[in-house]
Design a protein that fits this description.
Elements (H helix, E strand, L loop, with lengths): L7 E3 L4 H7 L4 E4 L3 H7 L5 E2 L5 H7 L6 E4 L5 H11 L5 E4 L2 H7 L19
Parallel strand pairs: 1-5, 2-3, 2-4, 4-5
Length: 121
């Protein structure tokens, strides 16, 4: 039996209900900066090596977290890292941005809460 923390997976059709149930969720876009700028979901935060430490250290670990990437591969690695770091509700999007686009879903309009770091002092 392992004590490894884990993350959960979400399908594109489940996304709307998931976001409605978690209005304060932090959504992280694990694609490159140009893709994020071009068609990242409104309110999503770019997740990259340059800001991973700040996100890991300054985000409340109980805050629901959803990570998406291009096709749902890299997001699993990122999600496992956040889960291993003690985040309690981590999800990744199966099929990533491509699955979301193929389902022709609207951008995640409930994304109202941007990333707000906790005060380290």
């Amino acid at each position: 039996m392992s004590g490894q923390r884990t993350f959960r997976r979400l399908t594109a059709p489940e996304l709307g209900a998931w976001l409605q149930a978690r209005p304060g969720a932090l959504v992280l876009d694990a694609r490159d900066a140009a893709s994020h700028a071009r068609d990242g979901w409104p309110g999503a935060v770019l997740l990259a090596r340059h800001n991973q430490d700040a996100l890991l250290l300054q985000t409340e670990r109980r805050r629901p977290l959803l990570i998406y990437c291009y096709h749902g591969i890299a997001s699993q690695e990122w999600a496992q890292m956040f889960a291993d770091f003690g985040f309690t509700e981590v999800w990744d999007l199966i099929g990533g941005h491509a699955a979301w686009a193929a389902a022709r879903l609207e951008p995640a309009s409930p994304l109202r809460t941007p990333w707000i770091p906790t005060d380290p002092h």
